[in-house]
Design a protein that fits this description.
Two copies of one chain form a homodimer. The first copy, chain A, is of the alpha/beta class. Chain A is built from twelve helices and 15 strands. The interface between A and B is large, with 60 and 60 residues.
Chain lengths: 341, 341
């Protein structure tokens, strides 16, 4: 058996900065940037960065038998169509989150992936995969360090920085809205911590616009409550993070178990220790900051191995589908912010 | 007009340690401990502490015209009857929280207070009134330091320490259950921050027993979501706080406004700065710890002034009734923990 050589990927859609972290991970793990479609706000920057990548059409990417993986970071509402076409062309897909913005898109992706080996459709939930405090927190939970998980509290505030945002960001029809876009991270973490992607239900949700009058359809605040696996999760997201914070958002993840607690301060320990990635573990033995120096961010090699072998080591296809479905459930049942209706 | 002299109070019910902080405040503000009923788990300790107080019957306390105020810290389910009898005897009442454990009790208290001047029935929500970080956070909100309040996130974990708890603590019929007992603090804070006690609604709640199998009826975890005044509040309470924390619970209060955020770490800054009472303020100008050295805990003199003048400076009677009603609403609609039903 001959070595297949490095996996080659093509980029279709370049409308969010997540493109750069995804490709950085893939290239670092040995994949090669074969081709890209030269459209999207970040296409020029991408071409200048990955000079090996050849500009070509979507059909060229999908028709190239040397390309195994399609990376799609277009406008959220356009990602599912790319993913489905790529899967139907026999390729694996890595999508930025959110991977879908409507139930019709989700149903179509579900159909396209049905019966296929491995995980043809990956949505990369970066807050879980790229933050070493979150990675270690999940490891500790799996080792039983806090007993059984019974409460998960996630906060995902973001700085709006309106002038830096493209038009589609303010249009829920194209972005998916705040619960589909931002809360997908928190639902991913909840399902990962509670274990069974098919045992979860959104029981409350709300979204609204409280501070962005220039864009009345835009949602700048949201929350959702999800239950499953004997636990409850409450997840708060917003675009209200004050500009004086010093980073884009004071993202937190609190986990209450039957014998202990974990708290992640993902980006900043505000008015505390310097730097990002803080993890505090409390149990009967005491309270301590967990050393993260040996934590590896390894989603990219695991993803490439999954693509090569049609396996699901990074996460299951059903998990990705379940996260996406729950974000849509939350959006569809969301109350108007601050109201019971 | 002659000086009426110091206000005298009688104690009816001594079943929770809150008795000592309430009486400490009252005595420190100049009130005199006139009498107490010698029943309840802490009655002997109280008598040994306040040697000026005379042991007598309930009827003696209620019939003594020199006693203006009745302090009731009995078993929660028994407090309302004491309060109503005292109000009907023409006295003001200070109750430990919760002040009521059933809707019938609340209706009876509401009837007893209807049409009366001032605030005859005070339930002392100690987390707001005794913690200098909370006091200052509320001051800053009222000064506009974070714009309009749009999200309030409260966490009230407590150490169970089961051997130290009396039988009634494990019986929701006598304690009121976790949402009535513990979450009354958080609802009090939410209504204080959002302003209008009559514009609030519980939209989701859950309670359950996840780690206390010896007491199957006991609720050791709960949460509720409340909306009002254009804001949402999510409040998490539990008896799961790990014994290694170093204090009884890592109580937090997060407030997101349209232009900034406040975070209270009420009892401990876990793995951070020493001591209790921490307040972090973030806005466009930066992130800083707020100096609390000049914050006065002044609920007791304000309460005594309210009793003397039949005023409502500390809080309104309608606020106390609204907090109590919302805790009952939460309990009555609570889902089983981790379930959609």
């Amino acid at each position: 058996m001959t070595d297949p050589g490095p996996l080659r990927f093509g980029v279709v859609g370049a409308d969010h900065l997540h493109l750069f972290s995804i490709v950085d991970g893939l290239v670092g793990a040995g994949a090669r940037p074969a081709a890209h479609v030269p459209t999207g706000a970040f296409a020029d920057a991408y071409a200048a960065w990955q000079t090996e990548s050849v500009a070509c059409s979507v059909d060229d990417v999908l028709g190239d038998p040397a390309i195994d993986l399609v990376v799609t970071v277009g406008i959220p509402a356009e990602r599912a169509a790319v993913a489905i076409a790529a899967i139907e062309a026999g390729k694996a897909v890595v999508s930025a989150k959110p991977g879908v913005t409507s139930r019709a898109q989700l149903d179509a992706v579900r159909s396209a992936t049905a019966g296929m080996a491995g995980r043809p459709w990956t949505v990369l939930f970066t807050e879980r995969f790229e933050n070493r405090a979150v990675v270690r927190a999940i490891d500790l939970v799996r080792q039983g360090a806090i007993g059984s998980v019974r409460r998960v509290s996630g906060a995902g505030p973001h700085t709006l920085d309106a002038p830096s945002r493209p038009d589609w960001f303010f249009d829920p029809a194209r972005s998916g809205g705040i619960l589909v876009d931002l809360a997908s991270h928190q639902i991913d973490e909840f399902l990962t911590l509670t274990g069974d992607p098919d045992d979860a239900e959104v029981v409350d949700a709300a979204a609204g616009n409280v501070a962005t009058p220039d864009h009345p359809a835009f949602e700048d605040v949201g929350s959702l409550s999800v239950v499953g696996g004997g636990a409850e999760g409450y997840h708060a997201v917003d675009l209200l993070s004050p500009s004086g914070l010093g980073t884009w958002g004071d993202v937190r993840l609190g986990i209450v178990g039957t014998t202990g607690t974990l708290e992640v301060r993902a980006n900043i320990d505000v008015c505390g220790e310097p730097g990002p990635e803080h993890l505090i573990h409390v149990d009967a033995d005491g309270a301590r900051r967990v050393d993260l120096s040996d934590v590896r961010v390894d989603w990219a090699p695991r993803l490439l191995a999954d693509v090569a072998a049609a396996t699901e080591s990074l996460m299951s296809q059903s998990h990705v589908l379940a996260v996406s479905a729950l974000t849509l459930d939350a959006r569809d049942r969301a109350r108007d912010w601050g109201s019971g209706r």
